[in-house]
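Lecture notes, unit on protein representations.

Consider one protein chain, 480 amino acids long.
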Amino acid sequence: MPNLFQSLSYEPAFESLGKDFYDIVAAAEFPQHVLRFRNDDILPTLGMVPSEVADADFVTTFGQFQGREPLLAMRYHGYQFGEYNPFLGDGRGFLYGQVRGIDGDLYDFGTKGSGPTPYSRGGDGRLTLKGGVREVIAAEALHHYGVKTSRCLSLVETGDSLWRGDEPSPTRASVMVRFSRSHIRFGTFERLHYFQRPDLTQHLLDHVVNLYYPHLWEQANCYTQFYAELVERIATLVAQWMSVGFCHAVLNTDNMSITGESFDYGPYAFLNNYDPTFTAAYFDYGRRYCFKNQPMMCRWNLELLQAPLQGLIPQEDMEFALSQFDARYQLVYQARMLNKLGIVTLEDQTLIDALVQSTLTMLQSIDMTYHDFFLALRKHFRVEWVEDTSAMLPLLTHELADESLAAVEQWRQVYRRSLQTLSSEQLNGVSETLAQHNPDIVPIRPEIEAIWEPITLHDNWQPFYDLLKRIKQSTTRFQT
């Protein structure tokens, strides 16, 4: 049987930009190839029937990298923790190919852990197996929680032994393939600005708008509208992260996609207790990318992108577009938080503000995790709460100090007022909305460690597969 991945119609879209944008590289050779994960949910998007795709197709295509040339290490720079770094680029991956989905959109197959490139900066170009497992979990969880995200197509263990300072070593290695709309980053534009190549900047911008914002392409002010829509997409994305309690941890401009899609999951974490200052990356000593700072940092990254786009988009147009970021963020964030509280919509903006804020204040005061609170609300909600706040989640007040009790009571009163604004039909729909927007399982770090231990000790992958199944089944897909 032919390898169906190698039979796809690949498009040289990024390659067509020219050699100023990439280096041609070769994949590393690995001592073994063991398929640990295949994402059958993605295959129909490519017009493929999962039962017709063999494990060997994944291995030969995305472990041994047979049948594709050229492999392109993409060039980019970026601001990393506030400092500009001109020595970046694909250091342990490459663009394997681009294909058109049955929806008409162009998608990338991008590797991670496939060997050194000119941008490896002395590194081995490898990905630890645990790093691959963690990215699979993050991408699948975010996807099923309604976040616009890249996904992992496959994970192949390669038999290499790696030495890392942040993992017990030697540790196992893997190659992951990321499936996304684009791997073009803010930093791709920043590199061209660094080298003072406005001609290439316009070339790249035409490419981006034509391929990824085609509805704007024929419009006279398409560049301005592109930037405005990118602002809207990024504001929406970070609102999605915040509502599901996700801390990306490394919001450098080389990790910001030009399509507004979330990707590149390293030291990320989902919140345990609600702590606005929670920082997922142990090396983020200044808490630059802590949970509460994510909207601000994404907005700052959009502001930095204005420098490469100057000369193509009027400065005042970009400033106006960016000024809409906060309003868009609040609109999406509050709508999603209302959904998590079981409410589709409220008409009173003052009441919306009070409900969201009282919820966050309470969560910061009680000894219940962020996700457990919403799960408890999902499990125990009763229509009778509209009349009696004393029956409202009595477990919240167990052994609380007076200040925390006051926060709980404040939330109860505001939540009750919110419920009282609903019609009978809307009130009866609260339970369904809670079920749709509050998953049974969220992969906080202990959950991930619990599935990693049997892999390490016994090469037992069943808990990993079970976790992914639970994530997939945990909630109805969000409406974004």
